TrEMBL record:
The keyword Oxidoreductase applies. It comes from the Bacteria. This is 3-oxoacyl-ACP reductase FabG. SUPFAM superfamilies: NAD(P)-binding Rossmann-fold domains. Keywords: Oxidoreductase. Gene3D superfamilies: NAD(P)-binding Rossmann-like Domain (3.40.50.720). Belongs to the short-chain dehydrogenases/reductases (SDR) family.
Length: 252
């Protein structure tokens, strides 16, 4: 099924670590050309070296999703390197914690600029190239936090993730005529390198909130994105897939 992504060109924003790295690895292992975009070029290059052990060609670029011009330059460079852009995984995001009473306007704007406006900029930069593809795919990394649940200290993050889904539905309408689908993956608690240093007790507490009694892996999110990017998912647009091991199901 996933053979349809072989040879396709995929941009993954925020692709040097965490869920983004898992998405990039999954596509690379299935033969896609993958452009990892991150603000830290050294981190993106290190990730590209690691992932190039797979079947795809992995390329590192420096890009800032809060800057539309930066993303336009990235998209142009990717197209010149691989000859096309077929899939955009708009994954870049930040999640600093701060309570409502302590939150500043700057705190709010920083998160919204990266998570919500950053999605807009990445999509706008890629649209001209996605229109030229045989079929285009946009996969947004949202979250269960905001669209479905809440979490103390993350009101700005939750708002940005809910905003992504409102954006997704209208973008799906606007781009449907160009054979471009727009969908989103909503991760629950996922084990990333940022959590590994917090200790087993903390990780077990997170896992206990999940009916399957384990944290998700970054590849779990990668495979959901891979499906939405496949040829076979061509009649799915404006939709969300929750990948959380049943985390949102219990009533208490």
């Amino acid at each position: 099924m996933f053979d349809s992504v072989k040879g396709k060109t995929v941009i993954v924003t925020g692709g040097s670590k965490g869920i983004g790295k898992g998405i990039a690895r999954t596509f690379a292992n299935h033969g896609a050309n993958v452009a990892i975009v991150a603000r830290n070029l050294a981190a993106a290059e290190a990730c590209a070296v690691e992932l190039n052990r797979g079947n795809g060609k992995v390329y590192a670029l420096c890009g800032d999703v809060t800057d539309r011009g930066s993303m336009e330059a990235v998209a142009k460079q990717v197209n010149e390197t691989f000859g096309s852009i077929d899939v955009l995984c708009a994954n870049a995001g930040i999640f600093p914690s701060v309570t409502l009473e302590q939150m500043t306007t700057e705190d709010w704007d920083t998160v919204m600029n990266t998570n919500a406006k950053g999605t807009l900029h990445a999509v706008q930069a890629c649209i001209p190239y996605l229109k030229q593809a045989t079929y285009g795919r946009i996969v947004i990394t949202s979250s269960i936090t905001g669209p479905v649940t809440g979490y103390a200290g993350w009101s700005h993050y939750a708002a940005s993730k809910a905003a992504q889904l409102g954006f997704m539905r209208t973008a799906a309408l606007e781009l449907a005529g160009d054979n471009i689908t727009v969908n989103a993956v909503l991760p629950g608690n996922v084990l990333t390198e940022g959590l590994e240093g917090l200790g087993d007790d903390y990780l077990q507490e997170m896992a206990s909130a999940i009916p399957m009694q384990k944290l998700g892996s970054v590849e779990d999110i990668g495979y959901a994105a891979l499906f939405l990017a496949s040829k076979e998912a061509g009649f799915i647009t404006g939709q969300t897939i929750i990948v959380d091991g049943g985390q949102i199901l219990p009533e208490n």
